Amino acid sequence: MQLTTSHGTTVKMHVENLIKTVSKIIVKK
In 3-state terms, what secondary structure has residue 1? Predict the structure, then answer.
């Protein structure tokens, strides 16, 4: 369970960073 939770949290952080990056690109365009 701990492994799944840690992995899920890491994925969530990656997704949030990805959204921030995409938003910056859209704003630039």
Answer: coil
Buried b (16+ CB within 10 A) or exposed e, 1-29: eeeeeeeeeeeeeeeeeeeeeeeeeeeee
Per-residue pLDDT reduced to its tens digit, 4-26: 556 667 788 888 999 999 999 99
Residue with tokens 């840690």: 6
pLDDT of residue 13: 84
- 13 is written with which tokens? 């952080």
CB half-sphere exposure, 19, CA atoms < 13 A = 6
